[in-house]
Design brief:
The protein is built from three helices and 31 strands. The chain has helices spanning 157-165, 315-323, 392-399; strands at residues 6-8, 12-15, 22-25, 33-35, 49-56, 59-60, 63-66, 71-74, 87-88, 94-99, 102-107, 113-118, 123-130, 136-143, 168-175, 180-188, 191-196, 203-208, 219-223, 230-231, 239-246, 253-259, 266-271, 278-283, 287-292, 298-303, 331-336, 341-347, 367-368, 374-379, 386-391. A hairpin with a 5-residue loop joins strand 29 (367-368) and strand 30 (374-379). The N and C termini lie far apart (47 Å).
Length: 400
């Protein structure tokens, strides 16, 4: 298949047996499909088109799906496409994505593309974040000969190994318009998940990647010129912090705080990037990922029914429980921010397992469409990972 080819997805609707919520499946369970990483701009402003990645004929490419009729057009071809990192531009005219070590700007009008940055020989690039206006991009580059022997594997076996290897990483700041770049910081530490602060393109949030009990601390900030490289908070080795994101106005960064010992407190917290003052929003279920809508009126999170961290899950035990019909707290939760209240939206029932070809294929990664109309998530509960959605407007109306 080639750029410009079209496929057709057939939608299927069912009523969630545990919450009564109407859920619509957008892709078929005979092949793996997932949307982009949950904090990427993966839908157009009006919510009509979704950027996603299906596995067809043994390869994964980026497609743009019309969410009204299921028609999808192929946007990429060839090897090395970053299947989670694509994002629409703020004006919906372009898609930014990575293929091998090149970063491209794809024109949706004619599907032409231009390369605006290439990672140097001997380095791997990825983990891209963008400024509001798409003028600037931040990425992580990792020196190839410093990663663990199994670094970059398909399963979670590399997670601890690469953290302990302390690979040489650097954050690179790219001027997309001028096609220039500079190194922000460089360190013997595994970096990940760069995110440029909304309204402030000079502030970059990123993480020290790895298992919670092996890293020094997860949450970090740095200015685009390399100054003020700072840790957001201390992190004892019995504490999980996950998965951080910027509020839409850039006023705070949010994350889930989870204790693994003692009372095992779990809550949503926020940090002011200027003062590093930390506040507690509310108690919450054990979310692996969560994010707010564009007005920060609602949040959505994917609860994990096991106390075992995702990278340590035992496939045999997980599949045994599923075969036995055991229902755990594997639900998508909707949070009313003003009321500080969460409720079960629907059962995602995913396995969380790295068995479909990539370590994150079966992660729900819930998110909102840009118009706040739908909640979208991924699950392999019906076979291979599929994309699902819930009409949030309809759900809230029925709850009145």
């Amino acid at each position: 298949m080639a750029i410009g080819d079209k496929i057709y997805n057939h939608f299927s609707t069912y009523t969630d047996p545990y919450t009564g919520t109407e859920v619509e499946r957008l892709t078929e369970p005979d092949h793996t499909s997932h949307h982009m990483y949950f904090y990427n701009r993966m839908t157009t402003s009006d919510g009509t088109y979704l950027l996603y990645c299906p596995e067809l004929n043994g390869e994964r490419q980026l497609y743009m799906m019309n969410l009204e009729n299921g028609e999808a057009i192929q946007l990429t071809e060839g090897e090395g496409v970053d299947e989670y990192g694509g994002m629409f531009s703020h004006d919906d005219k372009y898609v930014f994505y990575q293929q091998s070590n090149k970063f491209y700007k794809l024109n949706l009008a004619d599907l032409s593309r231009e390369c605006f940055y290439e990672t140097p020989e001997g380095w791997n690039g990825g983990s891209a974040g963008m400024s509001d206006d798409n003028r600037f991009m931040s990425i992580v580059e990792t020196k190839k000969d410093t990663v663990a022997a199994k670094g970059g594997g398909k399963n979670w076996d590399f997670f601890a190994q690469n953290c302990l290897a302390k690979p040489l990483c650097r954050i690179v700041y790219i001027d997309v318009e001028k096609k220039t770049s500079h190194v922000v910081i460089e360190d013997r530490c595994w970096f990940g998940h760069t995110q440029i602060r909304p309204g402030d393109p000079d502030t970059i949030m990123f993480c020290h990647e790895g298992p919670y009990d092996l890293i020094d601390a997860r949450l970090w900030l740095v200015q685009s010129d390399g100054s003020n490289y700072r840790c957001c908070r201390e992190q004892p080795n019995d504490l999980i912090l996950t998965h951080e994101f910027w509020l839409p106005d850039g006023s705070k960064l949010a994350f889930v705080y989870r204790e693994t010992t003692g009372d095992k407190v779990e809550n949503i917290r926020m940090i002011d990037p200027e003062t590093l003052e930390e506040t507690i929003l509310m108690p919450c279920s054990p979310f692996a990922h969560f994010i707010c809508d564009k007005q920060n009126k609602y949040m959505v999170g994917d609860s994990q029914g096991s106390d075992v961290p995702i990278h340590l899950l035992n496939q045999e035990e997980q599949e045994k429980d599923r075969a036995a019909g055991i229902i755990k707290n594997d639900f998508i939760y909707l949070i009313d921010v003003a009321k500080r209240k969460e409720e079960k939206l629907c059962y995602h029932g995913t396995s969380w397992l790295a068995k479909h070809g990539g370590p994150q294929d079966a992660h729900p990664h819930p998110c909102f469409t840009q118009d706040n109309r739908y909640v979208i998530f991924v699950s392999d509960r019906e076979g291979k990972p599929c994309i699902y959605r819930v009409d949030l407007e309809k759900y809230l109306e029925e709850k009145k």
